[in-house]
Each structure stands twice: as C-alpha cells, then as structure tokens.
Amino acid sequence: MNRWQNLWRFIPLFGLMMLLLTGCGSDTISALRPRGPVARDQLFLMKLSLGIMIVVVLVVFAIYIYVLVRFRKKKGDKDIIPKQVEGSHTLEIIWTVVPIILLLILAVPTVSYTIKLSENHIQNKDAVHVKVTAHQFWWQFDYPELGIATAQDLVIPAGKKIALEVTSADVLHSFWVPSLAGKQDTNVGMTNVMYFEADDAAVFLGKCAELCGASHALMDFKVVSKSDTDFTKWVDKMKTPAAIPAEAKAGEQVFKDNCLSCHAVNAQGLGFGPNLNGFATREMIAGVLDKGTNNDKNLHDWISNPQEVKPGNKMPAFGPTGAQPLKEQQINDLIKYLNALK
Questions:
Q1: pTM of the full predicted structure?
Q2: Is residue 220 domain-shared with residue 322, that is, in the same domain?
Q3: Residues 183 and 263 occupy one common structural domain
Q4: Angle made by CA atoms 171, 43, 41, in degrees to the nearest 5
C-alpha cells in the first residue's frame, strides 16, 4: 500500500514534465503556428471546433455542479424525492435544438473550407507545379514545367501557390508540412492533389505522417521558401552543371564507378535513388544528419553504413564491412566530390 501511495506523489511531476515537453521542438513544424494561408484556414477550423467543445464542456459541468449543490442532502433533511422532470417538452426541445445549432456552426465553415482547400491548381498558370513521389525513406520532387528534379529539399518561391501532385513509389506514405498545410496521403498507383503557399522566405520541416517502415520517423524533408529572385537563381543553378575542382576529380570517378547507377547529378534527376544535383547546398544529409559548416564526418558515416543511420533504406554500405567496400581514401575523395555539387 505504501508503494502505491508513493507513486501518487509523482503524478504532479509527470504532469509538469508533459506540460514542459509540449513546448519542445521547432516552430516550423507546428500546425498552431501557421506560415501560409492554407495553414491559417485549417487552424481556424481547429479553433472553431475546440471552442465549441469547450463551451459544451463548461455548460455541462456548470449544470452538473449546480445540481450537486442545489439538490444535495442537507443536515436534517428527510428522505424525499425531488420533483421529477422527465417528459418535459421544453427541456427536450432545448437539448435537441442546441446541438443542431452547434453542429451547423461547425459544419458550414468546415464544408466551405474543405471545398476551398481541395481545389485543383494544377492548371493554374500562376502556380508552381511540383510532382511529389514518396520512397522508402526519401522524397523526390519533380518540377515538370521547369525541367528540373531534386530530392529531400522542396524549394519554392514565397508568396506563390504551390500545386502538388503526390504519389508513392512503394508503400503508403503521407506528405505533411504542418506550418504550411495539412497532410495528404501518397498512394501507389494513385495521384492526389493539394496546394499551399508560404508567407515569406524560410525553411519549414516536413515529415511522413503515415507509418511506412523501419525508418518512418526519419523520413523527413525540408521546404525551402525563397524570394522570387533567389528561386530563379536556384533554378538556373540546378540547370547548370557543377564546376568540379581539380581536387574533386578523383571523387568524381569514384562516384561514376559506384554511385551513378542509382544517383543522377543532372537537372532532370533520372535515377533509382535521390538526385544529388545541388547536394552541397541541401539542408541535411539523407534528411536526418546535420550538414552545418563541416559535414564530412556525418557524410562519411552515411556512406560507410547507411543502415545504421536510417534502417531499412535501399542504399548499400560502402564501409570496410559493406557489400561494396571502398578504401578510406576513396570515401574521402567521394566526400570532396559531393561537397562540390553546388
């Protein structure tokens, strides 16, 4: 008994810890901090539904407490039965009409916003058209009108509608950028559409929101919002072959001998694995490892043993114990080449 009594003392501590932990994380992965019109519309619906629920709870508890106090048995009271009100037409009308009114208050804007947010902007000439393909466990982004493709970093112009066609290459995934829009499932053999817009230039964290395998939690990507000028410069750079310095030429040959069968380094990005064109300017390595100013160690770890970083992915290990081992110098040369893909 004493043991259980001691456990009860930890409940306030656990409650405080939960409250503190809810404030952890990036502010670019919160649906409660919208950074675009679509996310703001969705937040309005969340606030509306939450507000209605709070009102209902407060009214119910107010009536409950009133009844407890008003009809409690006082000292000296006899055992009497209070006046019964079942069959009251007035009360029955009230608790029938009020829920209908609340339902209409919630349903009308929900239906309106649902129709609005399901609009297909693929044919909108002012929108940027992007085809999104989910893989285990990475993201492919194709810009058919611009003739370029990339992976892991979805680069967009701020202030413009981004019309997305989302699909999957293997299993069920779900595309989700909380600060910009709600999630959209990606299904094999099916294409779903959605759109969003970023208010300003920033970097937003995106995730897969559907359990899809061993590295589901690591299937992250970035939405990099740029000004119109910077976005145009990025497109031009993606179409321009990278200038490989002399010290990276050895790594270029290692890449051609071992990586080119899966990874493209051109604008179109036709390959089995992620397109590595512009790799040096991406936010992360494999979507999960920090690049920073000196990413050589993380990049070395990824090339040597990708399964340790992201279990279940389809990239072979090139470390000493891997299926396709490379010498240490070859890995270092390969790193120099990848860092030159700007």
A1: 0.83
A2: no
A3: no
A4: 90
342 residues of the chain, pLDDT tens digit each? 556 666 677 777 777 887 777 666 677 778 888 999 999 999 999 999 999 999 999 999 999 999 888 878 777 777 777 777 777 788 888 889 999 999 999 999 999 998 988 888 888 889 999 999 999 999 999 999 999 999 999 999 999 999 999 999 999 999 999 999 999 999 999 999 999 999 999 999 999 999 999 999 999 999 999 999 999 999 999 898 888 889 989 988 998 888 888 888 888 877 788 988 888 888 888 888 877 655 788 889 898 999 988 999 888 898 888 778 888 999 899 999 988 888
Same domain, 162 and 263: no
Residues 218, 257: one domain? no
Whether residues 110 and 174 fall in one domain: yes
Task: Report yes or no on 206 lying in a domain.
Answer: yes
Question: Three-state secondary structure along 162-201?
Answer: EEEEEEECCCCEEEEECCCEEEEEECECCCEEEEECCCCC
Residue numbers of the domain that contains 118: 27-71+87-228
Nearest to 150 by CA among 244, 232, 270: 270
Instruction: Take residue 103 and report the two structure tokens written for it.
Output: 């339902």
**300 within a domain of the structure (yes/no):** yes
**SS3 of the chain: helix, strand, coil, percent, to 5:** 40, 20, 40
Residue 13 included in any domain: no
Residue 59, CA distances (Å) to 63, 67, 88 in order: 6, 12, 20
